[in-house]
Amino acid sequence: MVVVGDSVAGITALREVRALGHTGPVGLIAADPDGCYPRPPLSKKALVDSAGDPEGWSLADLDVDVTRSAAVRLDTERRIVHTEGGHGVYYDALVLATGARARRLAPEREGEFVVRTMQDSTALRDRFSTASSVAVVGAGFLGLEVAGAAHRLGLSVTVVDTEPPLMRVLGPFLSSAVADRLRAASVDVVRATAPVVPYGDPIEGIAVDGVAIPADVTVSCVGEVPNCEWLSGTGIADDHGVAVDEQCATAVPGVFAAGDVTFRRDADGTVRRSPFWSHAVAQAKVAAAGALGLEPRCAPHDDYFWTEILGAPVKIVGPLPPAGAPTRVDGSLADASAVLEWDHADGRRTVVAFGAKKSVGWLRRRAADDV
Ligand SMILES: Cc1cc2nc3c(=O)[nH]c(=O)nc-3n(C[C@H](O)[C@H](O)[C@H](O)COP(=O)(O)OP(=O)(O)OC[C@H]3O[C@@H](n4cnc5c(N)ncnc54)[C@H](O)[C@@H]3O)c2cc1C
Q: Check: CATH 3.30.360.10 for 104-220?
């Protein structure tokens, strides 16, 4: 049993393999020089203060044989993972958990910041400490978390996107509430009609519909690219990542996958990616069970998601994005202390705690109409 990738999907798969009673040898192939750690703090507290850096995970209790070198090729015939360091690691069953990397808008130029790894987060925090203005490209959850950290540090912040903030994830009602919150905090939200491009080399700011917005720091938060080039020639991956089914199995027997490297294809061909924490955890548990030939202990998906919008924690359970106005609102959205619900036509419910202190368990029970 071998796992490639040591972030949340990889580590969860390892833990599940042991929890399911597997006592045989387990290998981990991992590439990040900083070891394994959770990413969510990287765009939140860690950008403001090094005390907010995530703590690394320990593998000490798992009896894992770690090869710290990137996987560079997979031989599915002989069942060997080849690494950059020249190792060949044999497997009976394999779990791919190589995640994704940040998409860049100007990879060939100096001065574009992204936030994906500990090194990215440290570099941006250092740059923030001497900057007075930041331009964030992308008003998704990551872009708004970066904007929130910069705002907390007193920088002048501009966020640019071709869509309103968080529209694709949270839908029009919450997107407009988020835009109000950003405006009230003097975060400049700019709507572009065409894709935004950084200008200069080193980068000096961004060009929005032909108008230059200069900034000391430019951060691209424009999505991610699955780390699957090393699988080329195996038939396991394409440009969308690694296709998996409900068992988290790939096109090749004995090879499973979980987390941000994966996608699912609907019957009508629509590609679905869910690059979120809880989803990676659920898939990893299912992939681990599949690799051992056992029944999984959970479904391969989990619709709990959380983020932070200018310091307000936002937790969500249920289908996204919710359409139209909520069915029920308790508390005040303007004061970032509200619980909102959308009852959908198919009987499911989306529950959102927007700044309100609610546990994940409570949100799940509320979504299941159990509280
Ligand atoms: C800054 C940030 C903040 C986030 N905040 C939230 C949040 O608040 N809420 C939420 O739900 N989700 C959040 N997410 C998303 C969540 O962190 C990801 O969904 C999750 O990290 C996916 O885990 P993963 O293990 O699939 O992949 P990744 O986290 O991408 O990890 C993949 C691992 O594989 C390793 N690897 C890659 N290629 C190779 C190779 N060839 N050989 C060996 N190892 C390799 C990498 O070094 C990495 O350690 C955030 C993501 C980021 C980047």
A: no
pLDDT at 152: 97
Radius of gyration for the chain, computed over Cα atoms and rounded to the nearest angstrom: 21
User: What ranges do the domains of the chain cover?
Assistant: 2-101+224-291, 104-220, 311-367
Q: Give the number of the atom of ligand 1 that is nearest the alpha carbon of residue 260.
A: 26
Residue 369: the pLDDT is: 86
Q: Nearest C-alpha to atom 26 of ligand 1 is from which residue? A: 259
pLDDT at residue 196, as a whole number: 93
Q: Which CATH homologous superfamily contains domain 2-101+224-291?
A: FAD/NAD(P)-binding domain (3.50.50.60)
Binding site membership of 226 for ligand 1 (Cβ less than 6 Å): no
Give me ligand 1 centre to Cα 220, in Å.
17
Spacing, Cα 99 to ligand 1 middle (Å): 5
Distance 370 CA to ligand 1 centre (A): 32
Apex 244 CA angle, 238 and 250, nearest 5: 80
Tokens (6 digits) for 316: 């969500």
For residue 255 the two structure tokens come to: 């090879």
Are 2-101+224-291 and 104-220 in the same CATH fold?
A: yes
User: Mean pLDDT of successive 10-residue segments in the chain (371 residues)?
Assistant: 97 97 97 92 97 93 95 98 97 98 97 97 98 98 98 98 96 96 96 95 96 97 97 96 97 97 94 95 98 97 96 96 95 95 96 97 94 78
Index of the ligand 1 atom closest to the CA of residue 305: 11
Ligand 1 close to Cβ of residue 10 (< 6 A) = yes
User: Token pair of 349, please?
Assistant: 């419910």
